[in-house]
Structure formats: C-alpha cells, structure tokens
Amino acid sequence: RARAAMSAASPRDVDGAPPAPSLTATLRGIARELGSNDALQVAAAATALLELDIGDGHGPAWALACVGAGVVVPLLRAVQRVPRDAHTLAPIEGDGTTEEDVRAGDEALLVLSELGGVAAGLLEDEGYQVELDADSGRAIFVDSRSGMGSASAPVLRASEAAPEEDRWRFALLVETLTLVTPLGVDAHTGRFYWSVEVIEYIGESDDGGAELSVIDMAVEDGDLGDVTRALVVGPWQGSDGVVEAEKDPNETLGEALDSWRDATYVTSALMTGSTALKRVLVCGCACGAPAAFIRRYIPGARVDVIERDERMTKLSIEYFDLECTKCDEDVDISSAGAEGEIRVFRESFVKAAKRMSAEAYDAVIGHWPACDGVDDDTIWREICRVTSDVGVVAFTSTNADVARSMIGGDETRARLLRDPANVTFEEVEDERPDKRARTGNDIASKVNSKDVVCCFMSSPNDDVFKADAAWDARVRAKLGGAAAEFPYRLAACDTHGVMSVLDYAVAENDDDADNVGRIPEADGGNAAWDAFGDAEAAPSSDVFDADYWNGILAAHGCSISAHGVVAPTKTSSQSSAKHVPELAENGYVWGGVIVPSDETSALRLGIQALVSAQWPPACIFVSDVAWRVIDILFAHAEVLLGGECVLEPSVAAFKLEAAASGKRYIGNNFGVPHRDYSLQDAVNKDGSTQILSLWLPLNRVTETNGCMYIVSKKDDEDGGVGDVMKSAPEVPRGSAKPLAPVDPGTLLAWAGNTIHWGSACQADSPNDPRVSVAFVFRKRGDAEASADARCAPLTRDQARATTLEKRLEIIHHAIGVFEHWYGDAVDVKRRLRAH
C-alpha cells in the first residue's frame, strides 16, 4: 500500500517540513502510550498510528512525522519483547509471553513495515533498491543505474529541502528498512541478534522530562553480537545520530572513554592550574563515564555529579554499572566525599551551588547547567564562585549567548574545542586570514552545541593543548606515577583561528620502571580506547625509519632512499597534447599507456605487500617509485591543464576485494556517482579546466574487476550547476561509459566536476581485483589558491624533494580526507604518527 502511494510521488513532493504543533502533540501522546508496560495500551497506540491520516495517507508526511515524534524505539521494543521462531519469525506464546504481548508486537511490526514501505518508495524514486547481503544478512543499498551497492544508506535528495536540524528524520526513516530483520540467531540460546536492540525505554515524564532510551547498536564490520551500548535523550535519531553517552558493554565503566566529548572533558580538567586534581564537579550524569574514569585514573580525585533527573541516574546504575552514592539536600556538598566515592546529587546546579563552598572545585565539566528562570550570566557567576581561581571549566550544550557569558570579553582565557569528525572544509577555509573579517572571528560566532568551550579562571599558557611535551608535562604533574596507566594521549591539536581541533590516540601501559610517570606512546594493541574495536595493529615499529618500510617494500622494487629525493624523470608528455580538445569537449581523457610497466608492476606488488603487512594501500606513497610516477604524471597534467600545476596531497590508492560490494575498508571503490569539485572550482571562466583528476590503473582493468565509469560533458547538461541542493548528481539514463578495458599505466583523466564512480569487483570476475592510484592536479593561480588549507599542495619541485616524514604527513592527510567513505581510520592515522 505504501509503495503504491509512493509510485505517484516525486522527491519534490517531500518538503520535510515538521508537522503542525497540534499534530506534534498528538504524536507525542501516542509515543508516550507506546512506552507503556501495558501491552494492550501499546497495541492501541500502534493502531492509532496506523489510523492517523496525515497529508497523503501513509506517505512521506505521515512517516516523517512518526519518526520525528520518537515512535521508532518504543515500536522496536514491542517487537523485540516477543520471542520468535528462529526460522519463521512467528511469535511464540508462553514462558511469560501473553496473547496481549503478541498483539502489541504484531501491531508495532505493522507500523514499522509501513514506515519501511515509505522509505523503499523514496529510495526507488531516487534510483536505489534494497537487497540483503547473503553472508551478513545486512541491507545493501544498490544504485539501479550503476549496479553499485553500499552498506551505507544513501542520503535522500528529498532531505535537502528540510531544515538541517530535521534531516535526521529522513535517515532514520531509511534505517527502518533494516531494523526488523535479525542479523542472526544464537545457535545455543535461540536469541536474535538485531542491528539495534532496545534494552530499556522510558517515555516522557509528567514534568516534561524527555524520553530516555538504552539501546545496543551492532558494531559496523564487527562480529555477530558485537555491540556498543548507547544512552539516548529525546527521540532516537538513528545509528548516526547524537547520543548522550556510549560504552562497550564488555568493559568496566571508566576503563575507557568512548566519545570525543568525554575525552575532552577529562583533558580539559587535567589542564587546571592546580597542582593536583583534587575535586571535580560533573554537570549531568549521562552514563557516568567521565566520573568513573576520573575516579579510576586520577588518584585522590573526589567527584561530585549534579543530575536532577532521577531516571537518568537509575539507567546509569542499572545498565551502565555506575557505582555511586545517591545524595539529597541533606548531604553536605561543601565538603569532599570519601576517596573513590562518586556522589550524585539530585537537584539543579543553581540550587546545589548555594550549598557549595567558594573555590571548592579544581574543574567543572559537563553539559552547560541551564536552569529554567535563571539567566546565563547568573549561572556563570555561580560556576566561577565554586571554581578554584586557577581552575578550569569545560562545557558542551552551549550557544553564542552562553559563550559570551563564559568569556566575558576576554578570549585569552577561553578555547573553542572541536571534534575532528565535526570539522568541515568550509570552516577551515573560513579561518584563513583573508576570510575571517567576513565570517567573524570570535568564539561566540563559531560555537555549536557539540563543541566544548573551555575557560580558565586565570590566563593559561599558549601551549596548553599542544600535543607535545606540554601535554606530557601537565599530565605527569597531575598523576605522578599513575601517568603510566593513563589509557590515552592528546595526539594532535590543529588550530584554525579561534577553533582548536583535538585528536586523541590510545596509549599502552608500560611496565618499564625507567618510564614510570611518563605518558606512554600510542600502540594499537590497547583496545581500551575505542568501543568499536581496533583493527589488528601492524608490528611495533618506527614508521619514520626507512629501514622499516624497505623491509616490506624493497623486494618488490619500491625501496625508500635515505635522502628521499627523486631525480627528474625523462618523459615525453607531448602525446597528451592531442587529448586537450577531448578534455574540453567531453570532460575526460582516455589516452594511451604513459607509465612504464616496471613502475606500475612495482607499485601493484608493493600495495599487495603493504596490505599483507596490515597497512592500507595509500602507504605506497612512502616509496620512491610512487613519487617517480607522480613526476611523470606532473608532465602530462601540465600539458592537459595548459601550464604549471600543483599536486593536491589527497593522493589515493585502491586495492579492491572480490565480492566486497558494500563493505567499507581503506582502499575500497567509491561506488556512488559523484563530482570531486563544483563547476565553479573545476572550470575557469573561459571554460578551460583548472582542476584535473588523474587515475592510473596498476593492473589490467575490465568491466568486471572494478573499472571506472564516466559521464561525458555532453550528457551532463549543466556541469553541476544544479547540484547545490542535491546529495548526488543525477546520471542520465544510458550515459554511463565504462573506461575499460585498459592496460596498466594508461592515462585516464577528467575535469574535477565530471561525474564518475568506481565499480566493485564482481565475485565471478575472471580478472584480479583492480589496483590503482589516483591524484588531483590544480593549475597554478586561482585553483591553487582555493586548495585545502589543512595541507598545502605541492609544486613539482617540492614533490621531487619529499622526505619520508613529509610523505607520511601526506598519507595521514589523504586517509583523513576519504575517511567518511573508508570508515573508521583513527587507528591507522595514529600509527602513521607513532615513533
């Protein structure tokens, strides 16, 4: 029924506007009833959703309103509460499961099926089909135009018309397609494994407190049963949405910090000017991870927590194993609690502060303690009163007004800290000196609710967050001998104007007595940092030592010389001159072989050796042969672009796996049609190309082992002008051209705004999976000036002179550029910086 309703709808019919207030109130009321422990009430609420007629019946307006009201989690809970047959999924009554429970589960399943039907219709309108992967049982989203599939759900173009804060509803609607199909069954217990399992759900409280959920989410690319547990406040926004807290259920609370936010709270607290971190106040319990972490790793620290929602404390204790003492107003908060004790006070910060002593805390961290009827300036004055005059505070959930109250006109005492995952290219560009005057250059103008605003009661040193000896010294001063047990370190601090981007790395315990008190270096063997699991680490080594890489690569003709300088290559690039008209007319070039076979063979064998040694393909750029090939390509790029050019450091290397469609790994194909750059960036005002993507196959590439597809400029009507509000460009039917078959070393290049994508290697391909490298060249001038500010482009002479250290810096940057596609690359990037 939902598919039929959707068949007449186009993406333009879906504006994503939130429902009217009266309808929202109705839906929220139904959501509260779905959270009831009365099965009949749950069944009635689910039926009410099915009977609700919004706009086009059970079309997009109805579905988006439902997911926005927070009904997905309680519906899932009703479905998952009912035991089911492992083969037929039919409900099983008995053993405490009543007929009413089964009815509630069935009604909830009907609603989720209707939501999934609407999602399938929207996907079909935008050219996608949903299939199940035979091995994993997980959904694969297949582009019907190219046949490419991905486990990552596509971003619906229809969502672009919705306000940014509401776009999560589209993503969650698509995710409903995957929620009611179990990933597998435990052979011994018959228990189902779900992609998302609801552990607990508490609806809105009578006093207006938001609904709370505890859910277990399957770990991407993990083993069956591997999950991360999340605490959600308000409507769940999907697997990629915001969560209040998260934890690996197999770890003791406080053993690790599984979010950038929590790590930054603790990092900020350690930067206090006090000689020791004796008392810490945490605003907001969440699951209790920061408090438990401080208790475990910072000797002598006393931790108080302010949490006025008793439900939050209850869930933290029951499902996250928080060990604490619950306190009321009769407990003296002015004096410190017992050593090792976490005290949780059930009251607002403003109320509790009246009973706190002046300068009681060395650090105050957590959510900004907003209080109804109390202005931000008053709250800040109370925070300052109870914080040591050399102490530090660090808050999330802030806005421009809160930031102004905290800073008070003196930004020398404040730092705006941001998660690398939340940094956009535009924000980095805005911090270039020539742009700051236009975009604003103060913390209040830049802050968002996910940032941590850190403020020092006295002016800190300029290097307070530097990822070097300053970090080491500060932490040793606070922890003494216990520093050897501290499980993470500040790995990088990149400053862009008023914004500091902090990155962290795991650290291994070091039992060497000579190193006691020293923050240990990062090592991938310690899994205490990341709840999503670490990939197996490469053997312990100094990646800045050429001998290490030569041990992997030299036997394949990919050695690294001691001086790290590549001699100019003798190559003729005049063969590319005849392709200049093709580039202008078609937007791409399919030339002949331009790189000798001994060079492409060395690169291919080197990439295979690196992967065997547990390094990603991009590490081939440590080798001299890679930079000799780059020098050859420079010559051809200069001919095609009509002048001197520079190389972007976003170099890429690919080694596909057979039958791995939808799998995310470093070096996989980019299987979604896309443009690398906008028309404005890629093409000059005179129509000439100024950004060129150059793709080089290292083995023979056919249509079955992972070739490139291209859309000619002739078939792309506006060259990208109409892409501003789209998540992906439209590919006219029949316009996709495979660039295959091609031999190793063949010149394939296209303008930066040309639509293209890489296909996966088919399981039955008679050819070895594709191995290739790719580069972006910019013509000097305007195109060079607009390059990524995070890592400067290289001239040809600079490319010839790259040292091993510079090559590693480029590889680190390049992997980060494509991390959104590869998946989690934190461990690899950390290893590339480890001595």
Radius of gyration: 28 Å
Give the tally of β-strands: 28
State the separation between the terminal residues, measured CA to CA. Answer: 60 Å
Main beta sheet strand tally, sense and closure = 10 strands, mixed
**Averaged pLDDT:** 84
Category from helices, strands and their pairing: alpha+beta
Give the overall silhouette: globular
Q: What this model shows, in words?
A:
Mean pLDDT is 84; it is low at 1-13, 431-439 and 509-540. The strands form six sheets. This protein has a ten-stranded mixed β-sheet, sandwiched between helices. The chain has 27 helices and 28 strands. It has 835 residues and is α+β, with helices and mostly antiparallel strands. It starts with a helix and ends with a helix. The radius of gyration is 28 Å and the shape is globular. Helices cover 31% and strands 17% of the residues.
